[in-house]
Amino acid sequence: MKVEKEAIEVIVLTQFYKIEGIVHILPGGRLTDFITARTIENFIPVTDAKVYSTVDNKLLYETGFMNLNTNFVIVILPKKDIKEVS
Questions:
Q1: pLDDT tens digits for 35-79?
Q2: Nearest to 47 by CA among 3, 76, 8, 1
Q3: Residues 63, 69, 84, 31: is their CA dihedral positive or negative?
Q4: Of 19, 7, 9, which is closest to residue 75 (Cα–Cα)?
Q5: Which pLDDT belongs to residue 11?
Q6: Closest to 8 measured CA to CA, from 85, 84, 77, 83
Q7: Burial level of 29, CB count in 10 A (0-12/13-18/19+)?
Q8: What is the per-residue pLDDT for 56?
Q9: What are the C-alpha distances in Å from 15 to residues 22, 53, 57?
Q10: How far apart are CA 53 and CA 58, in angstroms?
């Protein structure tokens, strides 16, 4: 049985990497609740991921799927909430 999910574009920061990708949450759910539930399982599934170096913002890897260990996440935020500043 397939459960419908909502795709959320996110940016995740770790100590050494910036990861841009998509996480899939239940429709109407909150990213915070999703992350809290994932903390118990220790991994966040991320699709269409691009991994950048935090040192020079150089693209290092692209992958269709990755499991991100929650122990290394410093910040996770939805891309739609980001406002560019000059």
A1: 887 767 789 999 999 999 999 999 999 999 999 999 999 999 999
A2: 8
A3: positive
A4: 19
A5: 96
A6: 77
A7: middle
A8: 95
A9: 20, 9, 13
A10: 5
What φ, ψ does residue 66 adopt, rounded to 5°? Answer: -150, 150
Give the integer Cα–Cα distance in Å for 67 and 37.
Answer: 14
Nearest 10 degrees: Cα torsion 60, 46, 35, 73: -10
Residue type, 64: G
Separation of alpha carbons 62 and 49, rounded Å: 6
Sheet holding 59-69, edge to edge: 59-69, 43-53, 17-25, 6-13, 75-78
Rounded-to-integer distance, Cα 64 and Cα 45, Å: 11
Q: Quick one: tokens of 11?
A: 């940016």
- Residue 26 CA to residue 3 CA, distance in Å, equals 8
